[in-house]
Amino acid sequence: MAHDKMAHNKMAHNDVIKAKLANGMRVVLKESRVAPVASFWIFYRVGSRNENSGATGISHWVEHMLFKGTDNFPRGQFDKAVARAGGIFNGMTSQDWTTYFETFPSDRIELALQVESDRMANATFDVEETESERTVILSEREGAENNYFWLLHEEVQAAAFQAHSYHHPTIGWKGDLRSLTRDDLYRHYRTYYTPNNAVAVAVGDFDAQEMLARIDRFFGALPAGPEVPPVRLVEPEQKAQRRILLRGEDSTGYAMLVFHAPQATHEDFFPLVVMDSILGGAKGMGLFGDSGNNRSNRLYRALVDSELAVAVASSFQPTLDPSLFSFYITLAPGSVHQAAEDAVWQEIRKIQEDGVRPQELEKAIKQTKAQFVYSSESVTFQAYWLGFSEVVASIEWFDNWLERLTAVTSADVQRVARRYFQPNLQTAGWYAPQGPQTE
Amino acid sequence: MTSAPTKRSVPGPENITRVVLDNGMVVLVRENHAAPVVVAEGLLPTGSIHDPDGKTGLAGFVASMLMRGSERYAFDEFNEIIEGVGANLSVNASDHTTDFGSTSLAEDFPTMVEVLADTLRRPQFPPEHMARVRSQKLVRIQERDQDTQQVANLRFFETIYGEHPYGRPTSGYAETVSAIQREDLLAFHAGHYAPQSAVIVVTGDVRTETAIDLIRAQFEDWRGDAAGTAEAQLVAPVQSTNGVNRLFYPLPGKYQSDIVIGCPAVARSHPDYDAIRVANTVLGRFGMMGRLGETIREEQGLAYYVYSAQDANLAAGVWLAAAGVNPENVDVAVESILSEFARLGEEPPSEEELADSQAFMTGVLPLTLETNEGVANTLLNMEWYGLGLDYIERYNDLIYGVSPADVQRVAATYLRSDRYTVVVAGPPSAG
User: Fold this and answer.
1) For a designed S-S bond to B281, which of B46, B71, B157, B357 qualifies (C-beta 3.0 to 4.6 A apart)?
2) What whole-number distance in Å separates Cα of residue B199 and Cα of residue A42?
3) How does residue B228 score in pLDDT terms, banded at 50, 70 and 90?
C-alpha cells in the first residue's frame, strides 16, 4: 500500500482520502456517517474514446459481459448475492470511462469489494453468453433508434468529430455490433481492466483507514497490467460550418447546435460552466445531472417564453479530451428551425458583446452550493462524482470546483463566448418530419 | 456538521410527529439534522379521476398552471425566488392526487412554505400562459404518441380499464387538452383544491415545532368545502375485462417493438397486496429483473429490458410485464412472458428463491430511507394509504409473512392465461 494523502474537500466540509495500492490502483475514500449505507464504485479508464473504427461499442459490450459471470460467481450469482444483501447495482459506459457500483447497507459493503475484485480479472466471456448478449445490445440500440432525438444526436456527434474517437456513439455502430467476436471483447477486457487503469471509490458509513485495508486485501494481490495504449487522436480545428438534416415519420421538430469546447482540466472549463449555467440553468449533481425548476435562465426566456420552443437546454460536460458545448431545442408547433437557431445565436452574441451581470454570476454560485449540499445526502451520488472527477481530471479539481467557479468574472465568460462560439465552429442538426418543408 | 442522533432509528411513532390542523390538513414531521436541507412532500386529494368528460388532462393542466403565477408571486418572480436560491418546487397531477414537493436549503424553508401555500391556494391562471402551457402539453402528447413504449403503456391501460377513470392518461389527449378553457381551470381549482385530507410531510434540518408553526401560519386559515372527503375519492369499481385482448399499434419509422402485457389485480388495501408484491419481485424484479430477466434477457437474448410491476391504487389495479424486442421476436417474447406467468401459478417457488426476494425487499430499506426525499415519500405513502406510523417497523413481518404457497396462489389467481391484455407498439411490419 502506498502513501495516503489527505485532501480537504471544501464543498462538503469532509475529508477525502486518496491512496494508491502497490499495483497502481487508485483509491478514493470518504466517510459519510449520515445514514447506515455505503457505496462502492470502480471506474476503469476506458470508454468509446479508446475505440477504433470496426470495434466501436466494444467497451459497452465488455461492461455487459462483466454481468455474465466468473468462476466464483457464475452468471446470475453475482446479482443475486448483491440483491440478497439488500444492495443495488449497475454498470455504465461513457466516452471516457466504464464504471460499476454497488450501494449497500454499510455492514454488507465488503461484498462489493469481493465481486468487483473478482470480475476485474476473472470474467469468463463464455462464447454462448457473448452471442446472447449481442442481441441484447442490438435490442438496446434499436430501442434508442426508435427516438429521432437520439438519432439526431448520434448524427450531430459524428459530424462534429472527424478525427477523434468521440465521433463514435458509445453503444457502437450496428455493423460493429454484428461483427465483433468473443476474442475481440476478451482482448479489450484484458487490456483495460487492470488495477493500474482503475479508480476505486467508497463513500459511506465506515472507517476510512479500515476500508483502505480491506480494499488492499481484495485488490492488492491482482497483478498490474501493462500500460494501456494511449489515445493520441486530436480533432483538427473546425473550418467549416456543418449541417445535418434528418427526416422521419415523427411530427415533433428538434434542433441541436454544438460547438467544440475544451476538456475538464483546461483553464476555460469553469468560465464555460458559468456560461452554461447562465444560458441554460444550473445543473444538478444527481447521477444524470437532473435539475428541477429551470425557467429563469436566458434561453428559456428567449425561446420558451417567446413560444419558439417548448423546451430548450444547454449542456457542457467535463471530459478527458476536448468535447462539445451543446444546445438542444424542442420546437413549438408551427415554429421553424431557423428561427429557434437564430434565437440561440442572439443569446450567444449578447454574452459576446456585453458579458453577464454580477447577479447572474452570484446566482450560479448559489445554485451550485445548494446542489452540493443536496448531493451530500446520497453516498451513491457523492461516490460517482468523486470517481469520474478523478478519471477526467483529479479529486483536487473537484475539490476546488466552487472556488474556481467563484473566481470566474464577466470578462472571462465574454472571452470564452467569443473564442468558442463562431458560425464556422458550429455543427447544427435539424430533425423535421417527412413531407412539405416546414423549416 | 453534526452527526444525526437518529441515524440508526427507522422512522416510526416515536420520532414522527403527526398533527391534524383544524381544517383537516395532516402534517407529518421527522427531523434529520445531518445536512442543512429541508424536504417537503405532500398531496392534495384531487387528480385526474376528477377530470370531467371531454376534458381529460384538466387536473394536469391546473397543476402546470399553478407555477405560472399566484397572488403574491408572478411567473418571473416565482422563478427568481425559487431558482435564485437553488431550490426546487414542483406540482404534478396523478390519478387520485395532486402531488407537490419542495427541496431547499434549511434557511430558505420558510420562504418555500409561503410560496407553496400561495401557489396551491391562490393561483391566478394568467391568460397569457394558457396558450403557452397548452402548446407545451400538446407537443408532449405528440411525443408520447410517437414513442413505442409510451403508446404500448397508454393503450394497455385504456384497454384493461375500459371506461374507468384509471384508463385515461393524466396528460390527456390532443382533443381534450385543446378543449380546456381558463374557466375550466378556475372551476376545477375552486371545486377540488381543499385542505381536507391534504397531507404535507416535512423531513430535514428543521425543528418540529418550527415546521408545524410555519405550515399552520400559511395553511390553517384555508377553508374548503367537502371536496377532500373520502367520498370524493370514490371511483367506480374496476370492471375487469374478460378474455384475452391482443392489440397492435403500428408506428412507422421505428426499429423496435415494445410490449406491455398484464392482468387485472388488486387495490392497495386488498389482503393479497403484499403477496403479489413479493411474487412480483420473484417474477420480474429481483437481481437482473427476476425470472423474466433470466429467461428473456439472459438465456434468450431477446430484450435489453424486461420487468414486471404491480400497480395498486385505491381501487383495483393491474399486474403487468413489459419488454422491448426486435419486431421479429414479438411472438416468442409474449409466449415466454405468458409461460413465466403460468409457471409461477403452477408450482410454488423454492424456499430459497422466495427468501432471496424477501431478503432484497427488506434489506434495501436503509437505501430507501437514506435521503430526506426517500423518507418523505415513504411517510406520504404511509399516510395516504392509512398504513400507520409503525408501518416500517411492521414491514419485515409483512414481507416475510408471505409463503411459497401464497406466491403460487396469487399468481394462479391473477396471472390468468384466459384473462390478459397484451399491447404491442412498433414498426408496421411486426403486425
Assistant:
1) B357
2) 41
3) low
Asked if the Cβ–Cβ distance from A13 to B1 is below 8 Å, we say yes
Per-residue pLDDT band at B231 (split at 50, 70, 90): confident
Is the Cβ pair A371, B86 closer than 8 Å?
A: yes
- Please indicate whether the domains covering B17-233 and B245-430 agree at the CATH topology level: yes
If asked whether residues A306 and A205 sit together in one domain, one would say no
Asked whether residue A204 falls in the same domain as residue A309, the answer is no
Residues in A touching B359 (Cβ below 8 Å): 83-86
DSSP annotation of A301 reads: I
**For the structural domain made of B245-430, what CATH number should be given?**
3.30.830.10
Task: Point out which residues pair with B321 in neighbouring strands.
Answer: B261, B308
Angstroms from B188 CA to nearest CA on chain A: 25
User: Which residue in the set A34, A292, A296 is minimally distant from B35, CB to CB?
Assistant: A34
| ipTM field | 0.94
B142–chain A Cβ distance below 8 A for any pair: yes
A249 and A207 both lie in a single domain: no
Residues A135, B286: C-beta atoms closer than 8 Å = no
Average pLDDT for B137-155: 97
CA distance B135 to B129: 10
Please report the residues numbered 72 through 91 in chain B whose beta carbons come closer than 8 angstroms to any beta carbon of chain A.
75-76, 79-80, 82-90
Mean pLDDT to the nearest integer, B277-294: 97
Q: Collapse the DSSP code of B392 into the 3-class scheme (helix H, G, I; strand E, B; otherwise coil) and give the result.
A: helix
Q: How confident is the model at residue B5 (pLDDT cuts 50, 70, 90)?
A: very low
Query: A439 lies in a domain?
Result: no
CATH 3.30.830.10 for domain B17-233, yes or no, is: yes
**Contact: A86, B140; criterion CB under 8 Å:** no
Beta carbons within 10 angstroms of residue A237's beta carbon: 8
> What's the rounded Cα separation, in Å, for the pair A385 and A18?
14
The whole-angstrom distance between A35's CA and the closest CA on chain B is: 5
A136 contact residues in B (CB cutoff 8 A): 297, 301-304
Residue B8 has pLDDT above 90, yes or no: no
Residue B1 has pLDDT above 60, yes or no: no
Say whether both A214 and A249 belong to one domain.
Answer: no
B258 chain-A contacts, CB cut-off 8 A? 143
The residues facing A98 across adjacent strands are A44, A93
Q: Which of B8, B35, B103 sits opposite A36 (nearest CB)?
A: B8
* Amino acid letter, residue B136: Q
Number of domains composing chain A:
2
Residues A59, A133, single domain; the answer is yes
Provide the grid cell at A387: 470517481
Comparing alpha-carbon positions, the chain B residue that sits nearest to A359 is B84
Question: Can you point out the beta strands (E) in A252-304?
Answer: 254-261
pTM, 2 dp: 0.95
User: What is the domain range of residue A140?
Assistant: 4-219
List chain B residues with CB under 8 Å of A132.
298-301
Q: What is the mean pLDDT of residues B272-287?
A: 98
Which ranges of chain A have pLDDT less than 70?
A: 1-14, 285-291, 436-439
**Chains A–B, number of C-beta pairs less than 8 Å apart:** 203
Task: Specify if A304 maps to a domain.
Answer: yes
**Which residue shows C-alpha cell 445514514?**
A35
Close Cβ partners of A187 (under 8 Å, ≥ 6 residues apart):
none
| Residue B116 confidence (pLDDT) above 90 | yes
pLDDT of residue A423: 95
Q: How far is CA B76 from the centre of its chain?
A: 30
By percentage, how much of chain B surpasses pLDDT 70? Answer: 96
The H or E element that residue B296 is part of is none
Amino acid B142: pLDDT? 97
How high is the pLDDT of residue B9? 78
User: What is residue B149's predicted lDDT score, i.e. its pLDDT?
Assistant: 98
Query: Is A397 within the bounds of a domain?
Result: yes
Q: Which residue has the cell 449481442?
A: A134
* Residue of B177, B288, B429 to mutate, interface with A, max A Cβ within 10 Å: B288
